[in-house]
Specification:
The protein has 12 helices and 9 strands. A 7-stranded parallel β-sheet has the order 1-4-5-6-7-8-9. Strands 2-3 form a two-stranded antiparallel ribbon.
C-alpha cells in the first residue's frame, strides 16, 4: 500500500467522497467492502458508513442471523432479548453514529419488541450522537426519543405534531438533557401556551444556542433571548398576545 494512504485522515476523506457520490448506486456496499478489505481500511470505512443513518433498521440488521426476523405484519422484530455479546456488537457500530434521522415510516417498520429492547440498552445507545432529527408525533415512542437525547448532541430537529402535556414535558427537558445544543429546530403544531412555556424553560439552559427555529412563542420566551449570548439566528411565529403582557 502506498504510504500516502496510511494516514487515517486521508482515508476518511477518500471514503467520504465514495459515500457522497450519488452516481454510485452501490456506494454503501462499496464502503462495506472496503471495511472488509484490510485492517487499515476497516475503521475509516466504518466511521463513514455509519456516520449518518436513517431509522433503527441498520442497527438491528447487524445482529447475528436468527436473532431478528420480519413478523406477519411486515415489521422488524426480535425473536428473543439480546445477550451481552450481541449488545457489544450493536455498540461496536453505534459508536460511529453521529447523525440519526427518524421519521414515522422508520418507526412503522419496527415492532414493540425492538422498541423495548432499544429503550433497555445496558449502555447509552448512541454515545457519540451529534445531530438528531425526529419527525413523529406518537407519544408511545417518546421513551425511545428520551434515550437518544444526551449531552453530546449539538443539533436537534423535532416535528412533534399537535401540542400535548407529554410533548411539553419533553421540550422542557431539552436544556437539561442536551445543554450543548447549538441548533434547535422545533415545531409543535398549534398555538399552545403550554408548549410555548416549555420552549421558554428549555431556552434558559441552552447557553450555547446559535440558531433557533420554532413555532409560536410567548413574550416570556422572547424576553429570555436576552440571556442567550451566542444566539445569532432566530425564526419564530407570532401568536395572539395581549399587548400589555409583560
Amino acid at each position: 500500500m502506498h504510504f500516502c494512504l496510511l494516514p487515517t485522515e486521508i482515508l476518511v476523506d477518500i471514503f467520504a467522497i465514495v459515500i457522497g457520490n450519488r452516481e454510485w448506486i452501490s456506494n454503501e456496499a462499496t464502503l462495506a467492502a472496503l471495511a472488509r478489505t484490510c485492517r487499515t481500511f476497516k475503521e475509516p470505512a466504518l466511521s463513514i458508513l455509519w456516520k449518518k443513518i436513517w431509522g433503527f433498521r441498520p442497527l438491528i440488521s447487524c445482529l447475528p442471523e436468527g436473532v431478528s426476523q420480519i413478523n406477519m405484519r411486515g415489521e422488524l422484530t426480535l425473536k428473543r432479548p439480546l445477550l451481552e455479546g450481541e449488545w457489544r456488537l450493536v455498540g461496536r457500530y453505534s459508536q460511529y453514529i453521529c447523525s440519526l434521522a427518524v421519521k414515522d415510516v422508520d418507526l412503522g417498520i419496527i415492532d414493540d419488541r425492538v422498541v423495548q429492547a432499544l429503550i433497555s440498552a445496558p449502555s447509552p445507545l448512541l454515545p457519540n450522537l451529534r445531530s438528531l432529527v425526529w419527525w413523529d408525533h406518537q407519544e408511545y415512542y417518546f421513551p425511545l426519543l428520551h434515550t437518544l437525547l444526551g449531552s453530546t448532541i449539538t443539533s436537534v430537529e423535532l416535528r412533534l405534531g399537535p401540542p400535548s402535556f407529554a410533548k411539553s414535558v419533553l421540550l422542557a427537558s431539552l436544556g437539561a438533557r442536551c445543554p450543548s445544543i447549538r441548533q434547535l429546530d422545533c415545531e409543535c403544531g398549534g398555538d399552545s401556551e403550554e408548549s410555548s412555556d416549555a420552549i421558554s424553560k428549555a431556552l434558559s439552559s441552552l447557553r450555547e444556542l446559535v440558531h433557533l427555529d420554532t413555532g409560536v412563542i410567548n413574550t416570556q420566551a422572547l424576553l429570555r433571548f436576552d440571556s442567550l449570548p451566542s444566539l445569532k439566528s432566530l425564526n419564530f411565529s407570532l401568536g395572539t398576545y395581549n399587548i400589555h403582557e409583560t
